[in-house]
Design brief:
By secondary structure, the protein is mainly alpha-helical. The protein contains nine helices and five strands, in the order αβααβαββααβααα. The chain has one domain. The strands form two sheets. Strands 1-2-5 form a three-stranded antiparallel β-sheet. A two-stranded antiparallel ribbon has the order 3-4. Strand 3 and strand 4 form a beta hairpin. The longest helix has 23 residues. It is extended, with a radius of gyration of 22 Å.
């Protein structure tokens, strides 16, 4: 077997990890406290006689919140789909048509946005393993388990694993010094 054969037979689909914090209220509080801590640090720097008042308590509360946030975060490990699975999934969710025209939200996606994206997230998720009822609650657009931002982050990661161009890094130093190439396909956002 040639070296190329060995390389090709060792191919793997790209994977990513997407952390989803189920307690966004704690994250919001942590951010607010971070602003308070910054404001207190600026105030203390402006008047050294204050002597760091209030920063210790805020920092301690932030540390406690960080532990709670970590405990309530679920990491989704996602993997790109095989081409046939991707095509079968897209075929199972054809774009909506009205009056012979493709629905504007489905045009760039090439599939029914409202049904394809939840199916894509579920099909792309390697871990955690969830019960059907949990999936239904998680993917319910009227549900309260995911904020819009969390939902977009999750489906965009799945989308990009499947359709974004893969840049081959040549050196860590190059990654640190050159701006992003922007070669990713981006994600299909609904029209306004």
């Amino acid at each position: 077997m040639s070296d190329v054969d060995a390389i090709l037979t060792g191919a793997r689909l790209p994977e990513d990890r997407v952390p989803v914090c189920t307690r966004a209220d704690l994250v919001a509080e942590w951010k607010r406290l971070g602003q308070d801590l910054t404001a207190a640090a600026v105030k203390n720097a402006a008047d050294p006689r204050i002597g760091g008042s209030g920063t210790g308590e805020v920092a301690a509360r932030m540390e406690a919140l960080r532990s709670e946030i970590e405990a309530s975060t679920v990491e989704f490990r996602i993997r790109a789909l095989r081409r046939k699975v991707w095509n079968d999934l897209a075929d199972a969710h054809p774009p909506r048509k009205t009056g012979g025209k493709v629905h504007p939200e489905d045009e760039s996606l090439g599939a029914n946005r409202s049904t394809f994206l939840p199916a894509l997230v579920r099909a792309s998720t390697v871990a955690p393993t969830l019960a059907d009822e949990t999936w239904e609650a998680l993917l319910d657009p009227d549900g309260e388990l995911l904020s819009e931002q969390q939902w977009r982050r999750l489906w965009r990661a799945c989308w990009n694993l499947n359709v974004a161009e893969i840049d081959i890094p040549f050196s860590v130093a190059g990654l640190l010094t050159s701006p992003g190439s922007g070669s990713g396909s981006g994600s299909p956002e609904p029209s306004e």
